[in-house]
Amino acid sequence: MENQNLELNELGWNDWFEKKKKCKPSESIARVAAVDREQLLLVDQTGTFRAKLAGSYLHRHRQPHELPCVGDWVCLEKKPGDDLGVVHLMLERRTALRRKSAGSVIGYQMIAANVDYVVIVQSCHFDFNLKRLERYLVMVMDGGAEPCILLTKTDLVNSEVLAEQLAEIRSAGIIAPVVTLSNVTREGMDDFKRLLLPGKTYCFVGSSGVGKSTLINHLIGREKLETKTVSGTGEGRHTTVRRELIRLEGGALVIDNPGMREFGIFAEEGVIGISYSDITALSFGCRYRDCSHTDEPGCAVHEAVQSGEISRDHFENYLKLREESRFNRMSYAEKRKKDRDFGKFIKSVKKNKYLK
Ligand SMILES: Nc1nc2c(ncn2[C@@H]2O[C@H](COP(=O)(O)OP(=O)(O)OP(=O)(O)O)[C@@H](O)[C@H]2O)c(=O)[nH]1
Ligand SMILES: [Mg+2]
Ligand SMILES: [Zn+2]
User: SS3 of 324, please?
Assistant: First the structure.
């Protein structure tokens, strides 16, 4: 971020953080604009500068998600003349956009912190996928941010295709705002710009190549971010590899992201993930990525029920709701089959001589 002399609230600071602030008198506050290997790029009222994490911080925080990521607020020490600040504390996160670590069975990976809105980008040209959209929505709401759906590349499909996709979104019961635009004809661009509020943080997520960086470049008004060139080699590679907090002229703060190829979602069943976010959060700790929390070893949810951290009633309601929503999503044919199977099951139980 190149801007100078901004108030902290222009960088996203608000009362919520003010109440959580635990800095020492000698420390100041800054926001993480980017993370580059061992160094942090921070931004505060004075501008941007580099910082490192204090050794004691690293010693106390060993989990990847405990380390500051783009969007985090930190307390740091920086003496006049020092060119490198030293970060001593990370403030509690108001929202967290995170995914299960790829390849790892435990732990999760932070995408961005303290994001107000997540813009879920899909291209209406060969990328639109309702199931994937639902998984993104769960991820967003699980982390406490507001979702906004954006369909790009409208110049490449006819209006019927686009209308069909919009209808599909609505008939799936998704109520998040939906915007459509073309980065080529710029149709829809002004409507999208109107959604961006000063001092709010917007994180862009979606598959590689859907036009996230192209759009952000349009918003900035110049080619700051690298985008895939038409003649570019390296097809299938992610063009964006770095996340950086950028302040737009209008005052909104945006974070670009590399395209996401795979990300773990715990509660496929949208609503359940939201009403039972405690269970969703705990499932980060389950040994298996697709843990059903019924009888798998290393199940963090089961452990929480055992220890009383989660009430058994709450857990049983969760299981019941999950079953119901699975049943509701089944097709008519599947339901008929399930009923038949259940009938057979009852018969076999009745036949079972050990039960008589
Ligand atoms: N026709 C058309 N092409 C677009 C549009 N938006 C982006 N593109 C093109 O799509 C390609 C990929 O765009 P990027 O902005 O690099 O995509 P990205 O989402 O940032 O991709 P990653 O950084 O890999 O995640 C580029 O060649 C863009 O010119 C659009 O609205 N219409
Ligand atoms: Mg990009
Ligand atoms: Zn589990």
Answer: helix
* Cα 277 to Cα 256: distance, rounded to the nearest angstrom: 26
| pLDDT tens figures, 71-110 | 999 999 998 888 899 999 999 999 999 876 544 445 677 8
pLDDT in tens, 203-225: 999 988 899 999 999 999 877 77
Looking at the CA of residue 238, tell me the nearest atom of ligand 1.
24
Q: Is this prediction's pTM over 0.85?
A: no
Distance CA 179, CA 192 (A): 7
Going from the Cα of 230 to the center of ligand 1, the distance in angstroms, rounded, reads 9
Q: How many whole angstroms from 285 Cα to the centroid of ligand 2?
A: 31
Distance CA 11, CA 186 (A): 28
Shortest-distance atom of ligand 1 to CA 226:
16
Does residue 122's CB lie within 6 angstroms of at least one atom of ligand 1? no
Closest by Cα among 189, 169, 168 to 178: 169
Does the Cβ of 157 fall within 6 Å of ligand 1?
A: no
Q: How confident is the model at residue 339 (pLDDT cuts 50, 70, 90)?
A: low
Distance from the alpha carbon of residue 131 to the mean position of ligand 3, in angstroms: 22
Give me ligand 1 centre to Cα 187, in Å. 15
Q: Which domains does the chain have, with CATH numbers?
A: 8-90 (2.40.50.140), 96-227+238-255 (3.40.50.300), 270-351 (1.10.40.50)
